[in-house]
Amino acid sequence: MRHFLLVVIAIGSSLIGKAQDPVTSHPMGTYTELNPSMMGADSSNVTYLNHRNQWPKIQGNYVTTRFGYHHYLSKINGYLGLSLMQDNAGDGTLRTTNLSLNYAQNIKVKKILIKVGIRGSYFQEVLDWDKLTYGDQIDQQLGFISETLYSYQGKQAITYVDFSAGISLYWKGFTLAASSFHLGEPHTAFISIDGGPGNQLLMKNSIQAAKTFELAVNKRSLEISPYYIINMQQDFRTNTFGILSSYHWAILGVSYRNEDALIYTAGVRTKYINVVYSYDQTISKLYDNTGGSHEISLQFHPFKKRKKAHENLISVKSPFML
């Protein structure tokens, strides 16, 4: 059934429904995708690469790649970030490219660190109409064998500008944060419905909370961080409960995304590089058909010791910013 499931789930919602954002499994892989204020746990500069392969058993699965750089500006105690995302659904059927510029300001209030962040993004979405399949192509016994009688009259590419913002607070191992994406709810339709503008990328709101506990084990620090993330976009809502631990160089974690997946995380943390891998084990009725999801992140901070921390910068402990 060539691209059938993809057309039903992804393309159909893009044409006449409400658009949704790509999913990430381990939030420490792409900080600003969770909250624009989350740049930099200390004064280091960070380069990151994140790759996600969702539902590899389905022909025309979802593949998302992100690349970014966060630079610490010591004179103003803030961070400037640039990121590039490419999301590929259906072997090139629907391709989304996103270039974002991000800024986050550190504000110290006694022993509390507050981060306020904003992000501006430029999106381009390209739809390959020749790869779409339609109901009149289906033979009940042989599947997709017929030519379609439909002809498209929509756009092949759309572009739009998007804005997001967030705030996060850190105190004695506690993290409390909130973020909002797609503040202007830009129109993203390839086809106008009844003469109207059609599809909108609706605002997504998110709340993040965590607490990091530090224990001394064999003269080394063991960090254990339970966390909670809630995402809300139109009628969709996800709740993620997880726990992340790190000891010496090892990172281990497990989380649960409501009625969707168990997520297992493992990684390595060194002075200059972090490598984190996660696997989503689907627990819904799609379990036998998807193959789960694989996600890997690499974070480089080779100049960490060369940066002198700002006097008003507090180094924070949070599972969202390794």
| Low-confidence residue ranges | 1-19
Please name the CATH topology.
Porin
Helical stretch count?
Answer: 3
**How many strand segments?**
17
For the largest sheet, list the strands in their spatial order.
1-2-3-4-5-8-9-10-12-13-14-15-16-17
Q: Judging by the overall fold, what is the CATH architecture?
A: Beta Barrel
Largest sheet: 14 strands, antiparallel, barrel
Q: Mind sketching the topology for me?
A:
Layout: H1 4-16, H2 31-34, E1 46-54, E2 62-73, E3 78-89, E4 94-109, E5 112-127, E6 138-139, E7 143-144, E8 157-171, E9 174-181, E10 204-211, E11 213-217, E12 220-233, E13 236-247, E14 250-257, E15 261-269, E16 273-282, H3 287-290, E17 293-300
Antiparallel strand pairs: 1-2, 1-17, 2-3, 3-4, 4-5, 5-8, 6-7, 8-9, 9-10, 10-12, 11-12, 12-13, 13-14, 14-15, 15-16, 16-17
How would you describe the overall organization of this protein?
The protein has 322 residues and is mainly β. The chain has one domain (4-306): Porin, CATH 2.40.160. 7% of the residues lie in helices and 52% in strands. It has helices at 4-16, 31-34, 287-290, and strands at 46-54, 62-73, 78-89, 94-109, 112-127, 138-139, 143-144, 157-171, 174-181, 204-211, 213-217, 220-233, 236-247, 250-257, 261-269, 273-282, 293-300. A 14-stranded antiparallel beta barrel has the order 1-2-3-4-5-8-9-10-12-13-14-15-16-17. Strands 6-7 form a two-stranded antiparallel ribbon. The two termini are 42 Å apart.
Summary keywords:
322 residues; mainly beta; 14-stranded antiparallel barrel; two-stranded antiparallel ribbon; 17 strands
